[in-house]
Amino acid sequence: MIEHLIKKLTAFGLSDKEAKIYLALLELGTAKVSEVAKYSKINRATTYVVLENLKKRGLVGVSYDKKIRCYVASSSEILLHAARAEANRQIEIKENIESAIPELKALHKNTKHVPIVRVFEGKSGLINAFEDTLKCKEKLIRVISAVENIAGFLPDYFPNYIKQRMKNGIKMHGIHPVETMAKKLIKLDEIKFDTPIIIPKDKYKSPADMAIYDDMINLMSSKDGGFAVLIQNKEMTEVMKSIFDLAWEEAKRLNSEVNKKYKIKNR
Fold first, then answer.
1. What CA–CA distance (Å, rounded) separates 244 from 202?
2. Of the candidates 60, 82, 58, 192, which has an alpha carbon nearest to the alpha carbon of residue 48?
3. What residues form DSSP beta bridges with 171?
4. What is the per-residue pLDDT across 11-70, written as a single tens digit (0 to 9) for each?
5. I need a surface site. Which of 233, 248, 254, 260 has the fewest CB within 10 A?
6. In the chain, where do the E strands start and end?
7. Which range is most confident: 21-30, 126-135, 177-186, 199-208?
8. Cα dist from 226 to 24, 179, 212, 216, 238, whole Å
């Protein structure tokens, strides 16, 4: 029975020692610290501290009938009163939060433009980043990449990704430093609806890849096991789209030079 009561009192908010000492004092009536300590089997110093804490909470009083300081347990009804007060306080807190929700939502609207940043690691992380591009609503992804970076890192996934992107009707404007895989990309019949452009590798390096779409900037790297950083923000994405479009016009000019040098026919 005592253990059962201790569980109820700890659920109320008392510590295990507070519950034991309060119950001991209820049984003893009026008792000295040493008597409470002995009955509850808790050392005297700790018992004194706990009794003082219970006194502050109104669960224990002090008797001055004797020369030696004695403690007496307050009526157990005070626990019910305290529980009701706490329950009422929680109801008040709940009502206050409910009434504040419209104002909180209004404030939240003011932070909707704060960028959301997600980081993914490893091959699975890069795949997650690629899968996100398949959700592209505007059906156009602007890409700056050295194709060999990621395609070489995910050789089993990349061909399936291209097929799924085609199936979803998502086109790609790509700027790629010239290398073996980039030249192959130009010649692939299955992605003729894309517009890949190759540029001089010696002048324009691309150690990491970037995809820009909807309100997302997707940065990917195969270095150190692979990682991706996704930044979601409308204003930042619009800036990056404008920068890409400017680069795209210059890339067209450079592409003609590269095509002549490597004897690549335009599609």
1. 20
2. 60
3. 140
4. 888 889 988 998 888 888 888 899 999 999 999 999 999 999 988 888 888 887 667 888
5. 260
6. 30-31, 60-63, 70-73, 116-121, 140-144, 171-177, 195-199, 209-213, 216-221, 227-232
7. 126-135
8. 63, 21, 19, 19, 26
Q: How far apart are CA 113 and CA 235, in angstroms?
A: 8
Nearest to 267 by CA among 189, 173, 181: 189
Q: Which residues of 159-182 are buried (b: 16+ CB within 10 A; e: fewer)?
A: eebbeebeeeebbbbbbbbbbeeb
Return the DSSP state at 74.
P
Tokens 């253990």 belong to: 3
CA distance to 6, 30, 64, 65, 211, per residue, from 53 (Å)? 17, 17, 19, 22, 62
Mean of pLDDT values over 241-256: 88
Q: How far apart are CA 207 and CA 215, in angstroms?
A: 23
pLDDT recorded at residue 260: 59
Cβ–Cβ contacts within 10 Å for residue 73, how many?
23
**Phi and psi at residue 183, to the nearest 5°:** -65, -35
CA–CA dist 91, 94 (Å, integer): 5
Phi, psi of 221 (to 5 degrees): -145, 140
Note the pLDDT of residue 244: 95
pLDDT at 264 over 70: no
